[in-house]
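A further point concerns the way the authors explain their paired sequence and structure data. An entry of this sort, consisting of the sequence and the corresponding backbone structure tokens, reads as follows:
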Amino acid sequence: MSIAAQPTVTLDHRFARDLPEMAVPWAAEEAPDPRLLVLDEPLAAELGLDPEWLRSPAGVGLLTGTAVPDGAAPVAQAYAGHQFGGFVPRLGDGRALLLGELTAADGRPRDLHLKGSGRTPFARGGDGLAAVGPMLREYVVSRAMHALGIPTTRSLAVVATGRTVRRETPLPGAVLARVAASHLRVGSFQYARATGDADLLRRLADHAIARHHPVAAGAGRPYLALFDAVVTAQAALVARWMLVGFVHGVMNTDNMTISGETIDYGPCAFLEAYDPATVYSSIDHAGRYAYGNQPAVAEWNLARLAEALLPLLHADEEEAVAHAVAALGRFRPQYDAAWSAGMRAKLGLADGAEVPALTGELLESLRAHHVDHTSFFRALGAAARGASEPVRRLFADPAALDDWVARWRALGPDADAMDRVNPVYLPRNHLVEEALGAATDGDLGPLERLLDAVTAPIDERPGLERYAAAAPPDFGAYRTFCGT
């Protein structure tokens, strides 16, 4: 079925064209009774798509993949991955489709990609479907991350399909339309390397350089420069996660992008009480992807990318390994620098201020006293202005941090600068669950109010007090699920 109402919609298929061995032509399943639930209108405009048209039957057809433009070539992408440390050589888009690439207003390509569009050859026994709740979770959290300035894939829309999805209980089905700089992952390179096809690996690397890191093309060793660029991008990204208390929950190598965007908002959540051991994913029994482990896991994942790239780094394997080890060694200093700069900003301190001892003592105190991470840093702005009571109230022993606050104040923190980086509103877990539960039952009101708060996270607004408050004591231990 072709789109007639907006003939200017053009979907390129450069990924499928450049890498046909990693692209299986496929079509989305029909949606029995599609209904648009949410649409990011500013994002639609950035992509050159008319929001009103997207609300029409033809537009909803595009958002579900059931009505694509002439010339489009939807594919399921192949990739491999380490899942909780175990290597799976063939994963791929089991319930997803790359519809193609749009050219955004900035002239750069963006993938238009679906989740929950039906079984593909990579489904491995799954039903290929998604439920309303998990798709709306990705929509809310990715919009919040974008509003915080954190690189992320973005959710364009969620469409209820009218199909029932069988999980622990029957649930209403949905399709998420997602936009990304690309869906190239560490697992993409692992897949290419596992095939033993050196030409495929090289073409994949060339595709990644052209799409994401074009400066690498002019380097003396372009594939090493590509790896360097990914290391830098991921060091900056994970530092940003840690600074806002974001817990990804499933940092498998197939969920780490080459672009440096956050991808896959399955069992994700934001910290409540600060604790590096925090795990929200129902399937992470050993705590592999706990909040405090995220920098080390990112480094481990990058080591797997280095292994995949070895044949391109040097003809001599020992030389290739030496180059890879040296480049990987730059991750930790870059991460530490990005995190330290971000923490200085959160504390309102000038560039160059030495804060390791100060922050170490602070974070240990937050952990020991079970203090809410987001509330603390926002309240600290008031303490910089001389009003310490909002911070003191967060501690069971109000005097616990008095000495630290006095020493920090002596450094001259800038309260206004702190308020520009420490959010008031995040997708707090109890509010996300409230909104998703209501939406699953057909009431989008709580979701819309939550979105209003988290898409403008910095400026405090009257009437939104509950969106800045910590979870109630009876909320209990929080667990999130992948949605498959």
Confidence is low (pLDDT under 50) at residues 1-5. Residues 273 and 370 are 5 Å apart (CA to CA).
